[in-house]
Specification:
By secondary structure, the chain is of the alpha/beta class. 32% of the residues lie in helices and 20% in strands. An 8-stranded mixed beta sheet has the order 1-7-8-6-5-2-3-4, sandwiched between helices.
């Protein structure tokens, strides 16, 4: 495993309000609506939520969120030093590519431009993608947690940024294995939402630390995975992939690092976090943890204060893991250790 690690201005300081009290856990029910107070709040979240998965998908897909996803895409390109993928692909040969959870479709579109001989399909729960696409790219509405029905396997499957969106990761990775051609590659890219500091500046009892614990509780109660990054390699190995490579990247929050590359990543990350904080938290915290909308607003303000504090050097990790399906298409089972 390798441990690795273009510029925007950092956002303005956020105002601060008193800390939010905790609230009891409540079930995350299918098709449950937000509390009336949330609908009447000045944030409004624009909950254009996906009907097929309204019981699990916690984010909106309005214009503001789609803009944030495009920003996230650019940040990930910076993290990976401007590479769309790390798996070894041949741009001189035709290939079929599947992009699961394509979001705005920006990765698939850029991939289509970079690989004109490839045929690329991007799938997502809702049709939010651009209609201006390369001729070798198309999009389909599909739920990746249902049984995949693609008639032919793919040379390369790409699955990125599915944190807190998947109920059954082993099934998802297993379907990716089944639908990869023998000798083909699959690549997963995702986060671990464990916030930490390497210099002790993120202290015990921080608002961010409590927030991560609440998110871990909420996603656990909802059957979702909040820290998939570190588990990707194991899931891929269990599914049958070989020639695995896992790379971990440090992702700072804010432009505090001295290293220029990490400083740039941190600046982008601070912007995307502040843009998404309200939407990240409102639905999950009100429906799952039973918070009031005004409590969420207070929490968001305090998180913004910690995130933008240059004396608090918070980091989390981003993982890129890729592997190959054996050329004979069979799952290799390791012998039991006696």
């Amino acid at each position: 495993m390798a441990d690795s690690n273009a510029t925007v201005a950092p956002p303005a300081d956020a105002s601060v309000t008193p800390a939010a009290p905790t609230a009891p856990t409540v079930p995350f029910t299918q098709n449950a609506a937000l509390p009336v107070e949330a609908e009447e709040s000045n944030v409004q979240i624009s909950l254009v939520l996906v009907a097929q998965r309204d019981d699990t998908y916690y984010l909106p897909n309005d214009d503001k969120e789609l803009d944030r996803l495009d920003l996230m895409h650019q940040m990930i390109r910076i993290i990976s030093r401007d590479q769309l993928h790390l798996a070894p692909l041949d741009d001189k040969k035709p290939m079929t590519v599947l992009d699961i959870g394509t979001g705005t479709g920006i990765w698939a579109i850029e991939m289509g431009d970079q690989y004109p001989l490839a045929e690329i399909i991007g799938t997502d729960l809702s049709p939010t993608q651009s209609t201006w696409v390369p001729p070798n790219v198309k999009f389909e509405v599909d739920d990746c947690e249902e049984s995949w029905t693609f008639p032919q396997p793919f040379d390369y499957i790409h699955i990125r940024y599915m944190i807190a969106a998947i109920r059954d990761w082993p099934k998802l990775v297993g379907q990716a294995f089944q639908h990869t051609k023998p000798g083909g590659w699959a690549e997963f890219q995702d986060f671990d939402a464990h916030y930490y500091s390497e210099d002790g500046s993120m202290v015990e009892g921080s608002v961010t630390g409590a927030w991560v614990k609440d998110w871990t509780l909420a996603t656990g109660n909802s059957g979702l995975e909040f820290m998939p990054g570190r588990k990707l390699e194991g899931w891929m190995r269990d599914a049958g992939f070989v020639n695995l490579r896992a790379e971990k990247f440090r992702v700072p929050i804010g432009p505090w690092p001295k290293d220029k590359h990490l400083k740039t990543i941190g600046a982008w990350n601070l912007v995307q976090l502040e843009d998404g904080l309200e939407a990240f938290n409102m639905r999950m915290f009100t429906q799952v943890l039973g918070w009031k909308p005004e409590e969420v607003h207070v929490l968001v303000a305090k998180l913004r204060q910690e995130f933008s504090n240059p004396r608090i050097h918070m980091i989390y990790n981003f993982w890129i893991v890729y592997g190959q399906k054996p050329s004979d298409g069979k799952v290799e089972v390791e012998p039991d250790v006696i």
